[in-house]
Amino acid sequence: MLRRVARRRLARRIRAPTASVSFASTTSKTAHDALRIGIVGLGSIGTIFFARLVQAAQERATSVDVHVTGFVKSHHIAQLQQQQQIVLCQPNANGDADVSAPLTTIGLTNAKHVEDQLRGDCFTIRSLETSIAPGLSANEPLDAVFVTVKAYDTPSVLQKLKSLPSVLAKDAVIVLLQNGLGDVPSNSGASGTDARQWSYSNGVTFVGGKVVAPGRVLVSGLDKGQTFISLPALVPGGTRERLVQAMAATGLHFDVVDAATMQAILWKKLIVNAAINPIASLLDATNQSVAATKWSRQCVQAIVREAHAVAASESVDLGLTQQEMVDAVLRVATATGTNVCSMLADLRKGSRTEISAISGKIVEYGKKHGIATPTNEFVLAMIKAREASLSGREQ
């Protein structure tokens, strides 16, 4: 339902061009030059993007040549090499990964392990922790990077990218795909002695995934889930067009939208996550628990009421009344009823959650505008308390 709601607000959507479009007039690069795309963080979403891009590149699904670089922690490279493949699976009747009929398989058996890298046909997997970038010469920097790590890791990733300037093209675009609201760096133009003009943007995907083993992801919503990004004016026309064409070949239902539409989509997903994730996590139950009782529905009402008011104060046009937003949340909770949300999964692992980028942002912007957000403050405190309790450390 949330996806249908989002579609109603996309009147200014930029459609993906067909494979016959010529890009020679918009950039010094030709359609035969490889578009180099980086994926930082091969968790569930990062692995989905990486695998689908590599598959499209290997199958020559588009006239744009694509090389994909996945950035992982050093120990992850050895794990992937041991697995010998990256696999995207569908759920079987029991909801488990169906390995008998994978959606996508990227073989790693023939990939060369060179200097803490795996190099294969159309792809490289390397560590962002490495201080140099072997295999990526000054003539082969990345044109676009998708950052798919947890929201709280994004600032350190951006700082690391800045410390490795040769990895990115001078006019590269960095797209932040994460839960909640992050602080996107300013697109103010060139800076520094080498006049780099990296541009930054947000992205939202409604494709879901769960890592069941290193390199193996259980995928949901691949057939219907859309992915939206906004691209600042600083992004060269050639990069923009080739990126859209490359992403269209992945089957990820990819769209580029303007900044205002992007903000509306971000806030809609934020409110859905703010209403479902903390409640399900505090109940230690699947998403269906959020819509199951009048008590949980009352919590949804309160969270949405506060968040809706904050969004309005931020001049975000959700295109939905407060009650329509509540109804959308409850429909999502019911439609994904058997899912364990990422926040609860993190708590069960004793890991840090993204509550600060979700409920925390609603509270932060509420204070900015003098809007009381007591329910969001309460669930923020409760999830933080659970984090501290399960991790055994004071926060």
TrEMBL record:
Q: Which organism is it from?
A: Lagenidium giganteum
Entry EC number(s): 1.1.1.169
Q: Give the Ketopantoate reductase C-terminal domain ranges.
A: 262-387
Molecular function in Gene Ontology: 2-dehydropantoate 2-reductase activity; NADP binding
The family note in this entry says:
Belongs to the ketopantoate reductase family.
Q: Taxonomically, which superkingdom? A: Eukaryota
**Which intervals hold domain Ketopantoate reductase N-terminal?**
37-228
Q: What is this protein called?
A: 2-dehydropantoate 2-reductase
GO terms under cellular component: cytoplasm
Which biological processes are named by the entry's GO terms?
pantothenate biosynthetic process
Enzyme class name:
oxidoreductase
Keyword set for this entry?
NADP, Oxidoreductase
